[in-house]
Amino acid sequence: MEITDLQLLFKKYKESSLFHRYITNEKITHLLSKLETYAKVKIVGKSVLENDIYTIKIGTGSKRILMWSQMHGNESTTTKAIFDFLNVCISNNSITNDILDNCTLCIIPILNPDGAEAYTRVNANDVDLNRDAQQRTQPESDILRKVFNEFKPHFCHNLHGQRTIFSAGNTNKSATVSFLAPAQDEACTVTPTRKIAMEIIAEMNSFLQKIIPEQVGVYDDAFNINCVGDTFQSENIPTILFEAGHFHKDYARDKTRELIFISYITSLLYIANTDVDGSNYGAYFDIPENKKLFFDVIIRNARLDESDRETIDLAFQFEERLQDDRIIFVPILKNIEILSNNFAHKEIDAKGAVVSSIDNKMLEVGYENVFVKLNNEKIALFSK
């Protein structure tokens, strides 16, 4: 299977009704109805605000894989890629037929529908579901655990999205896709279970490097038993954390969506056709660990006032906000200092000029606006 084959599959079967960052139950209901001819779609419970939580079960194979997305409501890229993948599954394609003949998939497309609707990380009770694996204080946590217990998966795919701040190691390469084989004990022992997860991640990385060289990262594996991935791994179920990150100028996460789609197929096809025993886990350690080195915008060599003798750097991070059922990006000034060890997705060289607010006031940390003034000219920090 060539990488170009997967790219063509994505282009052909991309679900056009899902786009940008705001994905809710309302936007997937018609897709679930379409799937009912080919898969078992079931309401498995209700959220805090009584929104439905669904599972999609598809495939007839003996290897069981549990996948859940939007545990954090504002992390929707992996959900879009789920429906792209399912479109291939119901098209009688030989690649996905191979997966479905050997595997049975149980997919929760949106675990946190209240958070998805409000576009927040947490649920309606302000709880991070990924820190509720042990206490299970929330109905969504109970539902995931119930599905896990009943389905008895052999593998788990824990699907998330990450911020634009991450680099793939100490480099100026953005971590566009990241993974983790979570620890299952305080010592972060490389157990047989983790080796299996690592081997699958290494397989995905080998494909992704052909498209985004040096832009794949892994997370620190510090153990936290309250996290769902760590909990399931500690119960000896190989669990993989997927993180959809930032590709250059891709704030809608369309390119990343394609990369996650490719990761789904490569991981599932590998599981389908391989008796994964962890013996090929070593390449996992070739993937660099994520670092927080990126801002969205850095204006370099700037002065805040005409009297300043020295120049500094101005670092802006975008805050995602829900406005009229769409996500907008608001630049916020986070740092005013020399940032020689940091990078940005967009850099502007002020060349010693004064940078001010659009009403000619001196910039301060916390300033928020899409525009600044540079040489008395209005400059956009964010553009579509």
From TrEMBL:
InterPro entries: Peptidase_M14. SUPFAM superfamilies: Zn-dependent exopeptidases. The keyword Protein transport does not apply. GO terms for biological process: proteolysis. One of its GO terms (cellular component) is extracellular space. The keyword Cell membrane does not apply. Pfam families: Peptidase_M14. Residues 18-339 form the Peptidase M14 domain. The active site is at E319 (proton donor/acceptor). Keywords: Hydrolase, Metalloprotease, Protease, Zinc. Belongs to the peptidase M14 family. This is DUF2817 domain-containing protein. It comes from Hyunsoonleella flava.
